[in-house]
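Changelog-linked ticket: copper (II) ion example.
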Amino acid sequence: MPEQKFSGLPRGSFRFLTNNARKKQRMNMQDTSVFDANSPQARAIARLFYFDLAISAVIFLTVASLVVYAVIRFRERPGQAKPFQDPGNPRLETLWTVVPALILLTLLVGTAYTMKIVNPPVVHPAPNVIVNAHQWWWEYRYPQSGVVTANELHLPVREKWLLQIESADVIHDFWVPNLAAKVDAIPRNQNYLWLTPSREGIFLGTCAEYCGRQHALMGIRVIVESPEKFAAWTRSQLRVPGKPAGPEAERGAKLFQEQTCMNCHAIAGTQAKSTVGPDLTHVGSRQTLGAGASPNNLEQLTAWIKDPQAIKPGCNMPSLKLTDSQARDIAVYLEALK
Ligand SMILES: [Cu+2]
């Protein structure tokens, strides 16, 4: 990842758009303006938006000035006769039918052209990532390499990737405005999204279809890296974690197997194989917990394990009533899973 910028205002943005800059700083987020398009797909969408905006502006100015002109020029004056009642003017009527039709046609062509750039039809889908939305977190599977992770999507820069978007429960929506179009995640259905990030960095998105109580805390964090860094990340994610080091981690590993954690989570190389919750094999390598609900460090991880409901009320991980030291031991174990 490139040097991250945590202070000051991003290029070309306004303060009111970044008034939560301090929160972003805490959450280890990059300040990227929503106007900053960072892929050919996002740029095509932005171009279409400005094109449509320009056409709308011309129409608005024309109509508004004609209205103002008519109001002033033809206002009622004392002693004036009734104005001439025009029974109809075929030439004018043709004109104001044909011109709007041409304008609509232009908008249609622009939209169709953009759709073709943004999401060309997928004929033989061989997705690079399968995005599976859950209430309220994201699972990412990389079928070619076998990596499984959650909430933080790593992508190599300048490569055109195909994402397959689906859902495990209700309708969600995958949206990272800096990178691509919005795509619905629908149960028992596959949607596709092309994505070619044009620079390295962290890009944030969120679920964009109301999906229940923690919809607002269903963040997407896309980490775009150089091909070398991405390859290194892939290798590290495929590594099966070794034996826990130190007494705390050992106790934590044992607790993890004894408590109900196993019913919902997987950790490669252990008995834990469930996919109800996020895969925790490399949870220590993630920047945040609970799809952006909190930063990932030992304190926050301990707090999460002790009482996830306090951090993300209503989420599908119950509070398991562990003691402080049990939660801490598990956290030490998990935090070491890089
Ligand atoms: Cu949602």
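Closing comment: Example verified and attached. The longest strand covers residues 161-167. Confidence is low (pLDDT under 50) at residues 1-19.
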